[in-house]
Write a structure and sequence with these properties.
The protein has 107 residues and is an alpha+beta fold. The protein has helices at residues 3-8, 12-24, 63-66, 74-78, and strands spanning 37-46, 49-58, 84-88.
Length: 107
Amino acid sequence: MSVREILEDETLLSSFLYSIFTMSGYEYDSSLGLNILCTIDVSKTAENEYRPVKISYDFEEIKPFVLSNGAISGEYALDTDFITMSYEFDYSLAETVDIPAEFFPST
């Protein structure tokens, strides 16, 4: 997925990218042709049927533009990745959810 295409869209991912660029003070240059890798983990539910279990985005190509590489970098100091996004799906949810009475206005 190209960063340019994502930024032209109105999705949660594009909002996330705009926030990254805004907080870093960097304005994206579309001539760079940067990409974001999307990985989808699935589980097989039946013959030729799959459902997503996890969707992850790899922002490795934009990191050099928005994060420093030195000791002042939070990623470097904490040995972790700060620019990540993952969705995990839980299919073992309850059939119904009781709504507490206090959620309803009294008459």
